[in-house]
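Hey, I was hoping to borrow your eyes for a little while. A protein chain has come my way and I'm curious about its shape. Take your time with it, there's no hurry, and the full record follows here:
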Amino acid sequence: MIARLSALLVAVLLVSSPASAQDREVPYWASIRAKELNMRVGPSEDYKIDWVYRRKGLPVKVIRVMEGWRLIEDPDGTQGWVVARLLTDERGAIVVGEGESAIYAKPDRSSTVKWRIEPGVVGTLGDCDDNWCEFAVDNRRGYVPQQRLWGAGEP
């Protein structure tokens, strides 16, 4: 009996964790979990679709929480409602600014430039310290100045 109750509790936690993991104080950063995500003009499937994202990992800023829905802002400043379960709290970032950005071996402009990356590239955000962030695209890793990444820092 105890084993069945424990299994039931674990199953409930696993099913509810994506949405409940995002019930926190706003604003906060999240990333798109799905390959396709509909942004709606209101917090329900009854509202029309305003935009369709096809960019898994794209960082978004969650600015309002309503039941199973999140009002988000994307890197371009567009706001709309998305279903919470299609977001993840895994941090992503997108390269912003003019021209290419260098990806350094260490968090120091005098270190080796490993490669260059263009604005619009989405990657996984690691730790940020002293205005430098760890940034990974596929299996390439390095350090980027924080001001070149939307999704880093305070939301």
Remarks:
- The longest strand covers residues 59-66.
